[in-house]
Amino acid sequence: MVTHNGRNVLLNQRPNKWRSYFTSMVIAIALLFSCLAKAELTLNGSTIYSDLGRDQFVAALYTETAHNNPEVIQAMDSEKRMEVRILNNYSKRRWINLWMQSISINNSRENFSDSAEELIALMQAPKSAPQKGDILEYLFSPESGTSMHFNGTELISDLSGEVFGLLLRTWIGAIPPSTNFKDELLGNQRNTKARDLLQNMTADKQRVALAASWVIPEPAKTPAPKLKAEVIPEPVEIAETQEAPLEQPKEDPVVAAETAGADKTSADEDSDLKNLVSNEASVAPAGEVNEESEAEEEIDFNVAEALAQRDYTPLVVQKIYQNISYPSRAVSRNQQGTVRVAIEIGRSGELKNSLATQKSKHSSLNKAALKAVEKAAPFPTLPEQITADSFELSIPITFQLK
């Protein structure tokens, strides 16, 4: 039984073609309701997130009423949706870190800690890391709170509304990925390429089916019937004076027949179940993807580590920002831009690596961003709750003249 938008959908547990048929029906219903929900909202703005020299995903913000004030949008107690269309493959760890680090620097510790468990549940809901072509949706409703869809299938729902607020502030909060990213989501600038991708980009059918399969219960195994206990007669002692030999006791033909029938039934059913499992494991129904091919690294991300990252990340960002120096040459030439820097910090706080993964058009700004990181080192020692050998962080440094 699967619950979708308040309705219970009963799934037939028949193998192969029937199971594939009902899976297709579930996908169609999920996409139908998803389209109906989308029709009620207006595109507030869309943009493209770029990193490592490549476009990584399209980001779109939908609201009931378009608005260019971020505080007003965040305060709206009406339906909202953040949509992500993946342009480049991600690993689970990289995807989770992208969100958690941005959430850490755009939200207070109080807001973060109050929703930490739900936030982790949201991040771990998909069983596969985002791949090129996937569509992820984070939705807010005043009645039902926060939910998440992956390629049209609802994976988690009934989370608090603050979870959506944590996510939204990473896009239009104080420290967005870039000023252009924020302005385009607020509708202050138009990104034609992003809008074209929203209209023309669709999820792969196999990935749609895979997401739907995550919420379909496994077929229940039929228990083997209990066998009737056979009563074995006690051995009979034969007197030595008895001349005629006793005949061996014969089984009751009725009991023997029933027992043999039960054995055959049990063997037949066990064989059918084994064949069913074997067929479903080796030959996926049309449109489905074998989940074994999607096996990925499991991320053990708990509340204690999430809070430790939340507390540590702003310390690093603040120290780097304190060491930023706007090049005088860039100021005189009215040069502005955003530089995204990836850094790796050792357990003792030493700077192990730094790299500009997204550069501005001006070399002086790129050099100034990397220099700020180098001057800020060393950083505080990593908390014990962060168990990795090093801490990786990607932060935007925006040079803007006022």
Feature tags:
2 domains, single chain, 402 residues, Chalcone isomerase, 3-stranded antiparallel β-sheet, 6-stranded antiparallel β-sheet, alpha+beta, Fusion Protein Consisting Of Minor Coat Protein, Glycine Rich Linker, Tola, And A His Tag, Chain: A, Domain 2
In short:
The protein is of the alpha+beta class and 402 residues long. The protein has helices at residues 16-38, 70-75, 92-106, 109-114, 116-123, 161-172, 179-185, 192-200, 205-213, 253-282, 303-322, 328-332, 363-376; strands at residues 2-4, 7-9, 42-51, 54-63, 80-86, 135-141, 145-150, 153-159, 337-346, 351-358, 390-399. The protein has a six-stranded antiparallel β-sheet, sandwiched between helices. The chain has a three-stranded antiparallel β-sheet with strand order 10-9-11. It has a two-stranded antiparallel sheet with strand order 1-2.
What is the percent of helical residues?
40-55%
Which descriptor suits the 3D outline? globular
**Number of structural domains:** 2
Order of helices and strands: EEHEEHEHHHEEEHHHHHHHEEHE
Provide the CATH top-level class of the largest domain. Answer: Alpha Beta
Strand content: 15-25%
Major sheet, described briefly? 6 strands, antiparallel
Number of strands: 11
> Which structural class best describes the helix and strand composition?
alpha+beta
- According to CATH, the fold-level topology of the largest domain is Chalcone isomerase
Q: In terms of per-residue confidence, which ranges show pLDDT below 50 for 5 or more consecutive residues?
A: 1-15, 34-39, 229-295
What gap, in angstroms, lies between the N and C termini? 58 Å
Number of helical elements = 13
CATH architecture title of the largest domain? 3-Layer(bba) Sandwich
- Rg, alpha carbons: 30 Å
Quick check: average pLDDT?
Answer: 80
Strand order of the largest sheet: 3-4-5-6-7-8
